[in-house]
Design goal:
- By secondary structure, the protein is of the alpha/beta class.
- Helices cover about 40% and strands about 20% of the residues.
- The strands form 3 sheets. A 7-stranded mixed beta sheet has the order 1-3-2-4-5-6-7. Strands 13-14-12-15-16-17 form a 6-stranded mixed beta sheet, with helices on both faces.
- A hairpin with a 5-residue loop joins strand 5 and strand 6.
- Helix 5 runs parallel beside helix 8, helix 8 runs antiparallel to helix 9 and helix 9 packs antiparallel against helix 11.
- Bound molecules: guanosine-5'-triphosphate and magnesium ion.
- The site of guanosine-5'-triphosphate has 23 residues, from helix 12.
Length: about 550
């Protein structure tokens, strides 16, 4: 016999036995439930003065019997009935109320968050006879935008509502809506969410960047929701009402995941994933995941996996199913592959091994660096916000073909080239990983070694994409990271890139305002002023070192 769920303390043995018997009840497929079952549930519920609920699967079997208190029942973990994107749960909930309240806000929330097939409430007379049945189901997206529908109350004598056919039709409609959006069945479809106390403009800008990040990660973005908050609810981050709306839109748009713009701490992740059925990740995880997709070299791969594990570790504390959603990452790459089986001890072992391997790779690189130092060529490092045009500049300057792409984090692994100036001296020029606002801490730590390469630079070229509406914030973020890396003392030349995308007056004005040299990294003919500037700066230091 299957066990009972919920609040069974203080019940008599025979009451428990009668409750367990509900598992044996059969419901014909056309019926929501039978009159007899409704009557027995109401009677029992009155007798023990607690709500009773059953969850019924698509084969009309009772798979959960739940006992609550006089005000509510709590639906237990139903993860083994995981709903596919755009589908319903395959379980309907029928439960008693002891007062005369029809469907409550909590009932509708459960319906939406758990994506139940249906939610029904049985009302009874004081002596336990079924009186009315209230019923609601989720609505496929429609013009009036009501996320669920509450049907007219049913008479307990007429519970023959063609129940399974109704659920099936509902689900077909949800799937149809989903498939019209589906461009690539393999790609994830995400709903983006931001909950913050920043200004509306700041949140919108940050959201625009999150969207670009998602696209870079190969995720389709189906919509975004911004919630302004005076003070974030620390436990939930997002209020229960809003979370419900969110799940409903995600369901209606056939989303496969929700991405938060704010970093979620372990308890926030837990409380969110406890309540909703979607995979939930945050901006940090998204960035880590993009890095995992991009890493090419052995060092890059080690660094990313280390950062991912370090981010996951505190989130592995809770051994619940939320972890399976959490560790899934996008498309389950990197350490996410190991999903559920991963545990803290193994994660720690892996971290130790990765750190050792990284150390070895780095020693090797230091030797190379020492060799290069012997050559005494000055080093110019190209830095800047991701997608600013760093790799494009390196390519145009040195006629190479480092990957450039209109995606964030196209470059992960640094590459170096020789560059000869007309006045006949050579420098080493290096292209690096792009910076981003709030670079995840673990990633920063993991990439520290790569970034430390920048320490040996004689000159930094800070590339700024002036065609990006957020370029001012981007400059600030880059300069903050430089300060964190203690690189703010290295001579830096600001380079205003993509002037072909703005009008000439703007580029002249910004050139003056930001004290930068304007270029279009794509076209060699615009690089002359920059080359001359570099030649002057480096020519001087070069001569000086030669005098030494
Ligand atoms: N119109 C225009 N586009 C440019 C210019 N420079 C670069 N781009 C484009 O900007 C996009 C990003 O260029 P990348 O060179 O990959 O940028 P990056 O700074 O190396 O980016 P990450 O490696 O991702 O950090 C590409 O689509 C380039 O073609 C320019 O001067 N004008
Ligand atoms: Mg690049």
């Amino acid at each position: 016999m299957k066990k009972l769920y919920g609040n069974i303390s203080g019940l008599k043995a025979n009451q428990i036995k009668r409750l367990e018997n509900f598992y044996r009840r059969r419901i014909p497929p056309e019926f929501l439930l039978t009159y007899e079952l409704a009557r027995d549930l109401c009677r029992m519920s009155r007798e023990i003065r607690r709500q009773i609920g059953i969850l019924v699967n698509r084969r009309s079997k009772v798979v959960f019997v739940i006992v609550g208190d006089n005000k509510k029942i709590v639906i237990p973990n139903t993860d083994e009935y995981r709903a596919a994107p755009g589908r319903l749960k395959g379980l309907r909930c029928i439960h008693t109320h002891l007062d005369h309240a029809a469907l409550t806000a909590d009932d509708l929330t459960d319906l939406a968050l758990l994506r139940l097939d249906m939610m029904a409430v049985l009302l009874s007379t004081p002596d336990g006879l079924p009186q009315k049945v209230h019923l609601a189901h989720i609505m496929p997206k429609n013009s009036n935008q009501r996320p669920y529908q509450i049907l007219p109350p049913l008479n307990p004598a007429n519970l023959d509502i063609d129940c399974l056919a109704l659920i099936q039709a509902l689900e077909d409609e949800l799937a149809r809506v989903g498939s019209t959006y589906q461009t690539n069945p393999d790609s994830e479809r995400a709903l983006l969410v931001s909950v913050s106390s920043e200004t509306k403009r700041q949140s919108e800008e940050s959201m625009a960047e999150l969207r670009e990040l998602a696209l870079s990660g190969g995720i389709d973005v189906i919509g975004s929701v911004i919630q302004q908050k005076s003070k974030a609810d620390s436990r939930l981050l997002i209020g229960p009402g809003k979370l419900q709306d969110l799940t409903l839109s995600a369901l209606q748009e056939a989303a496969t995941m929700i991405i938060f713009d704010q970093e979620l701490n372990p308890s926030q992740i837990k409380s969110i994933t406890d309540q909703i059925e979607f995979k939930v990740i945050d901006r940090t995880q998204l960035i880590l995941d993009i890095f995992a997709q991009r890493a090419q070299t052995r060092e890059g791969k080690l660094q990313v996996e280390l950062a991912q594990l370090k981010y996951m570790l505190p989130r592995l504390v809770m051994k619940n199913t939320a972890m399976s959603r959490l560790t899934g990452g996008i498309g389950g790459r990197g350490p996410g592959e190991t999903k559920l089986e991963i545990n803290r001890r193994r994660a720690r072992d892996r971290i130790t091994r990765l750190e050792k391997a990284l150390l070895a790779v780095r020693q090797q690189r230091n030797q190379q660096k020492a060799k290069r130092r012997k050559n005494e060529l000055p080093v110019i490092s190209i830095i800047g916000y991701t997608n600013a045009g760093k790799s494009t500049l390196l390519n145009t300057l040195t006629k190479s073909n480092v990957v450039t792409e209109s995606r964030l984090f196209a470059t992960l692994d640094p590459s170096s080239r020789r560059l000869r100036f007309p006045r006949d001296f050579e420098v080493i020029i290096t292209d690096t990983v792009g910076f981003i606002r709030d670079l995840p801490k673990d990633l920063m730590a993991a990439f520290r070694a790569t970034l430390e390469e920048l320490e040996s630079a004689d000159l930094l070229l800070h590339i700024i994409d002036i065609s990006n509406p957020r370029f001012e914030e981007q400059i600030k973020s880059v300069e903050k990271i430089l300060a964190d890396l203690k690189l703010h003392k290295t001579p830096t030349v600001r380079v205003l890139n993509k002037i072909d995308l703005v009008d000439s007056q703007t580029s002249i004005r910004l050139g003056r305002q930001l004290k930068g040299t304007a270029i279009s990294a794509k076209s060699k003919s615009t690089l002359r002023p920059l080359m001359e500037k570099l030649e002057n700066i480096l020519g001087m230091t070069h001569r000086m070192t030669n005098v030494d």
